[in-house]
Amino acid sequence: MKELPEIDVAGAARTRHPLRWVASLVLLVLAAQLVSLLVTNPNFQWDVVGRYVNAQIIGQGIMTTLLLTVIAMFVGVVLGVLLAVGRISENPVARAACGLYVWFFRGTPVLVQLVLWYNLSYLLPEISFGIPFGPEFVSADTNVLITPLLAAILGLGLNEGAYMAEIIRGGLMSVDPGQTEAASALGMSGARTFRRIVLPQAMRFIIPPTGSQVISMLKATSLVSVIALADLLYTVQSIYNRTFQTIPLLIVACVWYLVITSILYVGQSFIERHYARGATRNQPQGFWSFVTSFRRRPMPTPEVPS
Amino acid sequence: MSVPMVHARGVRKHFGHLEVLKGIDLDVQPGEVVVILGPSGSGKSTFLRCVNHLETVDGGAIFVDGELIGFEASGGKVRHLRKREITRQRREIGMVFQQFNLFPHFTVLQNVMEAPVGVRGAPREQARERAHALLRRVGLEDKAGSYPRQLSGGQQQRVAIARALAMRPKLMLFDEPTSALDPELVGEVLATMKGLAEDGLTMIVVTHEIGFAREVADRVVFMDGGVVVEAGTPADVLDNPSSPRTQAFLSRVL
Ligand SMILES: Nc1ncnc2c1ncn2[C@@H]1O[C@H](COP(=O)(O)OP(=O)(O)OP(=O)(O)O)[C@@H](O)[C@H]1O
Ligand SMILES: [Mg+2]
Fold first, then answer.
1. What ipTM was estimated for this complex?
2. Which among A51, A229, B62, B92 could disulfide-bond with A148, CB atoms 3.0 to 4.6 Å apart, if both were Cys?
């Protein structure tokens, strides 16, 4: 038999990665160029950006944008839960109706939907409530009823409902059917099983895409400028239409969209942590241990199941 | 004689064209432990799931403690029970699954407390004390705060047993409770079940653990092809099987 040499791999030389160095260098040069372009090019008009970035009128636009995002998202989520439950229900009529809804609202541009809601009075000059095909109790002029804000909420919310329905349905279907069986065997009602057992587990799959939806919604609200609702984008547009400082004002808008998106992103990661309870063998880190870990930095002790 | 805990007569069940149960007759007396044996696909799980109405029977009838399961008979007519009634019936029947099916987003304690508090409306403190007592009984009191995925399979199955017991069931159904476990973990679950049997709980156990059947069962039932082929004491069925089908099955598993 051949004698094997005596070798200890401790302290072995590392593999060199020259390509990594080249790629890093290229990126650094590009970054430096970008910064110098941003700083030295006077056309960015940073002084104008600085003047407007916390102007009061911009603040009002931000409030409208946030309000619209929150309300439209709320409508979307509530509708999404109902549609998702409808699509997995045992009632074939409900399944078909909810499927049709999703098909229509996902299949047409949201801009068109917004404009349609805004111009609803062309189709229905009057809206009334009563017994279908029977007597009417109250009726109102559509033009008075559908304000730009309501049109925006309807347009964005109903559209969002279709997307959320698919996200929630996917989340619900990803929960092991054994969970529902175990709950049934314990004598839990269907509603309680949904609320306590299925939905909380589905949330793990629902939250990440919903976070993307909120960010999309935040930016989609800028579409409402076409129906003359003074959101963030509409506000900066109305300013640069007077002052012709188009680029700096669009930068102001972008800065704020980025600020809000960053806050949402942090919020999402905390919600994800909450719903990750029990999902892995290691306990998810709580909010306070996360915050205080910057100071204490304890040695991680691996959780060993005994 | 008292009312049997389970009285099944001519239970039939089919999935599409596949006839899975072809008329099952089985009586289980209060306090009795019945082990069901049989080859894969013989309908053991299906029968067990009919007893707590996870599956709707297509013919025959099942009574648990004198109450018709899943249906209501009055004035010579039989009709399906409403969901709420079925839910009420299931509270009296505990079930333990092959795959444990613990709720992974709840701690062990919450798993055991969820049904008594949420379904029976038991006061929290009382339910917590009882949950701790049940966990002590299955030897897992120190795991009350853990999440199911942090436990071994055998520990998870013992929690599942405690969770079912928390509803104080009249009858417990076990569907291959040890089949998903590593061999060295089977013993701890069987020991827990043996303890329940000694305490007088009425149990129907589907298992391939012949040793458990011999030691704990009052009666062994051999099923094949959707019918009960043979039933009797463990000694009769396991050591002196009369049917060639039982003999063939036992020679394969023993
Ligand atoms: N929901 C269902 N739909 C269609 N067929 C089913 C369904 N459930 C069970 N079956 C079929 O019924 C037959 C009996 O199944 P069952 O699970 O009762 O067998 P088993 O005796 O428990 O077998 P095993 O030992 O493998 O668990 C099988 O052929 C199975 O494929
Ligand atoms: Mg089975």
1. 0.93
2. A229
